Amino acid sequence: MSRFLLAPLFVIALETGLSRSDLVGLTWAQVDLEAGLIRLARRKTGVEATIPISVACREALEECRTRPVIGERVLLGPLGRPSCLVTIRHHFTTAKEIAGITRRVRLHDLRHTFASRLASAGVSLQVIAKALGHSSTRTTERYARPDADAMRAVLDALDGKIPNSNANSERGANATKR
Known about the structure:
This protein has 178 residues and is mostly helical. The chain has two domains: 141 residues, Intergrase catalytic core (hpI Integrase, Chain A, Orthogonal Bundle); 30 residues, no CATH class. Helices cover 52% and strands 7% of the residues. The protein has a three-stranded antiparallel beta sheet with strand order 1-2-3. A hairpin with a 6-residue loop joins strand 2 and strand 3. Helix 1 runs antiparallel to helix 3, helix 1 crosses helix 5 and helix 6 packs across helix 7. The radius of gyration is 20 Å and the shape is globular.
């Protein structure tokens, strides 16, 4: 596998939250660019994941679609073979070195990053679970960790700094006085 495949692979991993096996096994039949969705039954659980395609993910998918070697699977090496997990892991390590990342980060951590980005943006656990292909939000809770900005939004809501919150309405203010 050459470098030309790696950027789209890592972008797709980060933008979809797919596990390694689902990422490597992703087929064009599971990608609906027109509807803007990826739908697949997770290999590990069989639970269906429905993932909206972001702008960055769409660009990465379109780059894969325009490559000289196209097959049933989205992520192929230059010879048309499916991507090898060992090679992906090796290139991920190289990418971390280039980026100056010294702490332990695994490819699977991109799945956690995907869920945490959604949680920090206020997406419900039920929706995040659907995108990750989890059958229970309890599993999703281990993945989706809101960031400091999201926690500051909680404080802003509690302190009445969010203009349309119930706490700022007359009814909400009266309810807290009772």
